[in-house]
């Protein structure tokens, strides 16, 4: 169920962005991230969480999964992909968000260094704190390295828990690809999964996009996922 704010901003969430299909192998540290996100929504964790990590580690997936989790608990939540909103006046976009239970800001780096956005975000932080609301933020760098010019905003970004989302190694990426394939009802064996991981960009977003293409192609042609079929379909 979407909030009125989500509808007015034209922001939608991916249905398949869930905690359950985020691959977090034992020992990676990402289990701690998932646990902290769940506890935040459940009211048992920190009110402010800051996630950071390299491109393709799944920051957007995790933020949207948190939104789905919040909505399932009947919380009013707003997801804002800031990369898509740099041309808009921040005051209009952020006005009234402190009335919601939770706000998720994705791609903070895209507005870092913009004095108008920084001041508006600083005011939002204060409003959310005063109202006792939840805030989840994501960016590629930790807040100390982010290009934030407003000192007060920089300090606010470090109020809560700061968690790094760890990248997967090639073996884990292969396992993640096979797991996502099973969820889609596809048969993807280790040999074919390894072939894909070794020959395409290893960003997980890209890997799942390739899997989506293979799913459609295999259904259309009624073909199994073999290395010759993958090579032909993806042009490898």
TrEMBL record:
Keywords (A to Z) from UniProt: DNA replication
Domain Hda lid: 170-234
Chromosomal replication initiator protein DnaA ATPAse domain: residues covered: 13-163
Pfam families to which the protein is assigned, alphabetical: Bac_DnaA, Hda_lid
Family of this protein: Belongs to the DnaA family.
PANTHER family linked: CHROMOSOMAL REPLICATION INITIATOR PROTEIN DNAA, DNAA REGULATORY INACTIVATOR HDA
NCBIfam families named in the record: DnaA_homol_Hda (TIGR03420)
Name listed for the protein in its UniProt record: DnaA regulatory inactivator Hda
Taxonomic classification: Bacteria, Pseudomonadati, Pseudomonadota, Gammaproteobacteria, Cellvibrionales
Gene: hda
């Amino acid at each position: 169920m979407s909030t009125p704010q989500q509808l007015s901003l034209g922001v939608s969430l991916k249905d398949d962005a869930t905690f359950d299909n985020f691959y977090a192998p034992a020992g990676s540290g990402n289990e701690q991230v998932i646990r902290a996100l769940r506890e935040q929504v459940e009211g048992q964790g920190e009110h402010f969480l800051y996630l950071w990590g390299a491109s393709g580690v799944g920051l957007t997936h995790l933020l949207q999964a948190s939104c789905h989790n919040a909505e399932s608990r009947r919380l009013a939540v707003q997801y804002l992909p800031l990369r898509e909103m740099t041309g808009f006046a921040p005051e209009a976009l952020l006005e009234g968000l402190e009335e919601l239970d939770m706000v998720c800001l994705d791609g903070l780096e895209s507005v870092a260094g913009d004095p108008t956005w920084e001041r508006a975000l600083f005011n939002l932080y204060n409003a959310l704190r005063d109202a006792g609301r939840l805030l989840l933020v994501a960016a590629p760098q930790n807040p100390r390295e982010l290009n934030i010019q407003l000192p007060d905003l920089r300090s606010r970004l470090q109020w809560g828990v700061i968690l790094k989302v760890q990248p997967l190694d090639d073996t884990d990426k292969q396992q993640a690809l096979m797991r996502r394939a099973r969820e889609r009802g596809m048969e993807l064996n280790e040999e074919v999964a390894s072939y894909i991981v070794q020959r395409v960009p290893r960003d997980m977003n890209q890997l799942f996009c390739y899997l989506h293409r293979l799913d459609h192609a295999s259904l259309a042609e009624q073909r199994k996922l073999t290395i010759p079929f993958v090579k032909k379909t993806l042009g490898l």
